[in-house]
Amino acid sequence: MSGTHRPGASGPGLAGYSVFREALATGGCRLCALAGNRTRIVVDRGNPGARAMAIGEAPGVEEDRRGLAFVGRGGRLFDQLAREAAIEPDRDLLIANIVKCRPPDNRVPRPEEVAACLPYLRQQIELVQPVVIAFLGATALRTLCPAMARSAMRDLVGRLFADPEFP
Question: What is the number of alpha carbons within 13 Å of residue 129 lying toward its C-beta?
Fold first, then answer.
């Protein structure tokens, strides 16, 4: 991780992220069926200069309406818990989802939807270069760490682990 990659810092990675964010948010992606029901493409929320990312499953109704990740009921609870741990979500994290468009009825994203969005998420991770990634649910964990797919979430909650996918 470069020395310029810090909260509030600027540099090539952050400038690149800004370009990426704008292009994805306004590009009109139609790579999967989720595009047909969305109001907005939900790229993220927070600070791309943060050293940590939190990755969830998919936008919900409120996220789709506002175009921001984790701003609905679950997001408000997440923010409260983060603040109790002295983490300011919009300053200390970049929060994103596996898929960028809301699945109907808040269902789990289908494999083809995940496959369509995964290059976007991988690009986010590459541009941000987080030191820590918090997986907010089984879909995020199993998508980005397939070796953990057989693990029960209850056995992994609160646990730090390394994955060869993210050196």
Answer: 14
